């Protein structure tokens, strides 16, 4: 085991929640996952009711030995509740120990990076095969 390990999921979610709430967002936990290493998905809803889904980046996007979490945007346009729920249901069947964090922010900010427009935030279209049934 390497000397550097990734932060536990429960600690990461608590810190993320504080960061978003300090910035004025409303955050709720829809589903608590595995405390040590559960995959984390963020559902960001804007004032118009559209949602964006952010999930763990594929391992191929990580640097060797990286200890930080990387996320990708899983949709390029806002989804309504039915579209979002269909994707979440598939993912929960594949991984029942995942975390689902709801973020309501008037501006639709994801609070993942200091710079919301960072080139490190990658977008993967939903049809990319990332989701498994």
Characterise the protein shown here.
With 133 residues, the chain is α/β, with parallel strands linked by helices. The protein has one domain: hypothetical protein tt1805. 21% of the residues lie in helices and 22% in strands. It is built from two helices and six strands, in the order H-E-E-E-E-H-E-E. It has a six-stranded mixed β-sheet with strand order 1-5-2-3-4-6, covered by helices on one side. A hairpin with a 5-residue loop joins strand 2 (40-45) and strand 3 (51-56). Mean pLDDT is 80; it is low at 115-133.
Helix content: 10-25%
Coarse morphology: globular
Q: How does the helix and strand content classify structurally?
A: alpha/beta
Order of helices and strands: HEEEEHEE
Report the count of strand segments: 6
- CATH domain topology: hypothetical protein tt1805
Radius of gyration in whole Å, from Cα? 14 Å
Which residues form runs of ≥5 with pLDDT under 50? 115-133
Proper CATH architecture = 3-Layer(aba) Sandwich
Name the strands of the widest sheet in spatial order: 1-5-2-3-4-6
Taking the sheet with the most strands, its summary is: 6 strands, mixed
Total domain units: 1
How many H/I helical runs? Answer: 2
CATH superfamily: Protein of unknown function (DUF1491)
- The first-level CATH class is given as Alpha Beta
Average predicted confidence as pLDDT: 80
Beta-strand content bin: 15-25%
Distance between the termini: 32 Å
């Amino acid at each position: 085991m390497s000397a550097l390990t990734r932060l536990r999921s429960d600690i990461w979610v608590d810190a993320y929640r504080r960061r978003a709430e300090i910035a004025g967002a409303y955050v709720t936990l829809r589903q608590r996952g595995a405390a040590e290493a559960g995959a984390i998905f963020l559902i960001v809803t804007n004032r118009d009711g559209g949602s964006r889904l952010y999930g763990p980046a594929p391992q191929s996007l990580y640097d060797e030995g990286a200890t930080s979490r990387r996320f990708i945007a899983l949709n390029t346009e806002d989804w309504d509740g039915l579209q979002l729920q269909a994707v979440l249901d598939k993912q929960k069947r594949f991984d029942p120990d995942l975390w689902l964090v709801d973020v309501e922010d008037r501006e639709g900010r994801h609070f993942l990076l200091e710079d919301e427009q960072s080139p490190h935030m990658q977008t993967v279209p939903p049809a990319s095969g990332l989701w498994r049934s």
